[in-house]
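[step 3/7] fold_predict: job queued, chain A
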Amino acid sequence: MPEKKHIASLDGLRGMAAAAVVFSHLDLIFPPLAPFMITGIGGRAVAIFFALSGFLMAYLYGDRPISRKAVADFLVSRFSRIYPVYLVAVLVVVVLSNIPGLDFINPIQGAREILRHVLLFGSTGVLWSVPPEIQFYLLFPLIWLLFSDTKRYQVIGVLLAGFLALDALAGFPGPGILLVSKLAFFLFGAAVGRMQPLLNRQSPGLATGVLALTLPFIILVSNQLFPNADNAWGLAPAFAGALAVLLVAREHRLSAAFFAARPMRFLGKISFSLYLFHVPVMFLMGNALSSVLPLYVVAPAALVATLIIAWISYECIETPARRALVSLWHERGSKVIADPQPDTRV
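[step 4/7] structure written:
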């Protein structure tokens, strides 16, 4: 089966969401910036990440034949993309948390907390969002099975819809490490990801381009615009996030001029490392420079340092680790779980 077309604009959308998370934490490091913050922008950005993840899984794998080997390859690919750099980020936070007198703002201390985070049950700082992502990867083979034969496996769709309804009635718990509280974002994202190839048969109109360009920004500032509206983890934000991802993925020239621009794609490329390391880097920069330089120098310097560290992490940790683990799996592990070959003996 031919490789799916890479949607460059989604790199930019991911980069914008990562930049929004970084912005949301500036006042943690530099309290004088608090009056300039946008309420809720970080949570909305993570919600877009979740919808984008659901979209990409369905878009990339939804129409591929499913088998034991295909599922194993998928899980290894996603784990190798996420876990190595996540583990490094955990270790960095552990080291910073145990330096006397440093008082790191999102500490991981004690054997129990360290083990929780290593085993993907931790919730310190931005690390809370990684466990639901991994949990969704474990759920996705069932969604993939549904996509492979909707009629045969319709019970999966019914169960997912029923669980989603119960989850909604329960009020969608807020930030946490359990997938149940974020399920709508992944499922709505997966639904529109499955729709994307069908929509590609028609060229997007101007309205699509305008909405694709504006809706992500409206979502990010929605708590500021509608302070009494649904919380960040309800059905309405989940639907809006999935719709924004779908519209951006349509790549109208108006929205693509922004989201597919080289700087935005660069941010998207390093987005996961940027997400994981921005707080430690900005914290260290603030600690080192705030007493000798003015804020208008320290804050931009911290942002530049964050981008540099994220780029180094992407090039030196993310990419090599992913390639090494996937290569090792294809050389050794995949043979263990290879699908049985039909008996051709007469």
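[step 5/7] annotate
Residues 281 and 305 are 7 Å apart (CA to CA).
Confidence is low (pLDDT under 50) at residues 342-346.
exit 0
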